């Protein structure tokens, strides 16, 4: 079959492309990506050598261009990864999040309707459920947890999810949604916690922890997420939402200390800085539905996944140093340059 995916020059989409080319070499993979600041074609250098892979530089909001690709490629299935994905940026510039994450999703679904695509999958996030309090460790997000968002990013992702549900019910679009917890692994853009801390530590720069670093995230190795999406696409039930998570909750401060230890860097690099506005306290996914119905379980333990990730950043310095030396420098200065330092 032909799988058309969007956002494949970004972190999870690229990992998904490599997962598919390796595990389903019989399938054709078509990637559509606007190559925003987060998209990187060098990430796809190996994939581009594969005759079963095609790349188009296209914005998912550009309806005529998207329709043209559907006309040409006639995909059997679509996976929509493309999104503005960084919470901090959504607080600075919400508009682009609404355009790409909501209107772009609509264009992709309209294309599926027009060309009779047999399956549409929306890659969503646990952030649509809002957050949980730190003193209620027994609480988890299930697929029935009400949508309750905190940031422009999560509100835009939740809006897209609601639109997918509406297209499913009103137009019979054969769609599924996955809501995953925080991913980590190779090709993760260095604006996000784990790669940012690895890159800064390797360069002996301050490690900016927001607030007290007590916020909790549930970390999943990216390949486990890719395997979950692949399973949902091939064996999932149309109309269903699947939560994906690793039962691997960690406080930010503990992750940063662990990275210092693994890299042999002093904890004195850690700097507590002004908190993120509206900062979600805790995310925790209950993944029992995808386990029960599709047999999915995470395979990579956090300690192993983090070692693999650190090794990757050590052996791919060119990849992230090129990013750090470009436009990203202005972003870093804007976000961290004048940020208040806490006690
Ligand atoms: P990313 O920011 O690394 O990559 C996003 C990709 O989408 C980039 O290649 C970018 O060029 C492309 N893109 C952005 N706007 C586009 C547009 N208008 N048209 C076409 N392409 C566009 O993001 P990621 O971390 O790989 O996340 C992928 C998806 O997974 C997103 O939908 C995100 O909401 C979701 N998600 C991410 C995580 C996580 O921990 N990173 C967790 C759960 C869900
Ligand atoms: O410099 C930092 N210091 C810091 O303390 C950064 C960049 C982050 N943090 C904190 C904020 C969060 O509590 O670390 C935690 C993780 O932050 P991010 O890496 O920005 O991820 P998060 O906000 O949790 O969102 C991620 O997971 C859900 C992805 O970016 C989203 O796309 C996904 O939907």
Short key terms for the protein model shown above:
343 residues; alpha/beta; Rossmann fold; seven-stranded parallel sheet; three-stranded mixed sheet; 12 helices; binds nicotinamide-adenine-dinucleotide; binds thymidine-5'-diphospho-beta-D-xylose
Average pLDDT reading: 97
| The CATH homologous superfamily | NAD(P)-binding Rossmann-like Domain
Dominant shape = globular
Give the low-pLDDT segments.
Answer: none
Radius of gyration: 19 Å
The CATH class label is Alpha Beta
Instruction: Tell me what portion of residues adopts beta-strand conformation.
Output: 15-25%
Structural class: alpha/beta
Order of helices and strands: EHEEHEHHEHEEHEEHEEHEHHHH
Strands in their spatial order, largest beta sheet: 3-2-1-4-5-6-10
Write out the distinct hetero groups bound to the structure: nicotinamide-adenine-dinucleotide, thymidine-5'-diphospho-beta-D-xylose
The overall strand count is: 12
Topology record:
Layout: E1 2-6, H1 11-23, E2 28-33, E3 53-57, H2 63-73, E4 77-80, H3 87-92, H4 94-115, E5 119-125, H5 152-171, E6 175-180, E7 182-184, H6 193-202, E8 207-210, E9 216-221, H7 222-235, E10 241-244, E11 249-251, H8 252-263, E12 270-273, H9 288-294, H10 302-315, H11 317-324, H12 328-336
Parallel strand pairs: 1-2, 1-4, 2-3, 4-5, 5-6, 6-10, 7-9, 8-12
Antiparallel strand pairs: 9-11
The protein binds nicotinamide-adenine-dinucleotide and thymidine-5'-diphospho-beta-D-xylose (TDX).
Thymidine-5'-diphospho-beta-D-xylose binds next to helix 6 and strand 8.
């Amino acid at each position: 079959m032909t799988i058309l995916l969007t956002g494949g020059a970004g972190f999870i989409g690229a990992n998904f492309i490599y997962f598919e080319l390796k595990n389903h070499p019989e399938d054709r993979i078509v990637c559509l990506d606007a190559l925003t600041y987060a998209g990187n074609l060098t990430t796809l250098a190996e994939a581009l050598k594969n005759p079963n892979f095609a790349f188009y530089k296209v914005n998912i909001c550009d309806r005529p261009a998207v329709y043209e690709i559907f006309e040409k490629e006639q995909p059997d299935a679509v996976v929509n990864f493309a999104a503005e994905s960084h919470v901090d940026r959504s607080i600075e510039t919400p508009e682009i999040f609404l355009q790409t994450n909501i209107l772009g999703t609509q264009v992709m679904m309209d294309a599926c309707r027009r060309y009779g695509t047999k399956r549409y999958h929306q890659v969503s996030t646990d952030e649509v459920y809002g957050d949980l309090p730190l003193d209620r460790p027994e609480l988890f997000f299930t697929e029935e947890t009400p949508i309750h968002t905190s940031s422009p990013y999560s509100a835009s992702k939740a809006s897209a999810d609601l639109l997918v549900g509406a297209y499913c019910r009103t137009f019979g679009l054969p769609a599924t949604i996955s809501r995953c917890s925080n991913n980590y692994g190779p090709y993760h853009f260095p604006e996000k916690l784990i790669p940012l801390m690895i890159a800064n530590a390797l360069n002996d720069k301050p490690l900016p922890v927001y607030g007290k670093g007590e916020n909790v995230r549930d970390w999943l190795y990216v390949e486990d997420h890719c395997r979950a999406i692949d399973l949902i696409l091939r064996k999932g039930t149309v109309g269903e939402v699947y939560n994906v998570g690793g039962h691997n909750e960690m406080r930010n401060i503990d992750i940063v200390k662990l990275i210092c230890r693994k890299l042999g860097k002093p904890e004195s690099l850690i700097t507590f800085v002004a908190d993120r506005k509206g900062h979600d306290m805790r995310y925790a996914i209950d993944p029992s539905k995808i386990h029960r119905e599709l047999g999915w379980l995470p395979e990579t333990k956090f300690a192993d996944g983090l070692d693999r990730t650190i090794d990757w950043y050590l052996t791919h310095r060119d990849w992230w140093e090129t990013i750090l030396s470009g436009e990203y420098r202005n972003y870093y200065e804007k976000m961290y340059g004048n940020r208040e330092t806490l006690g």
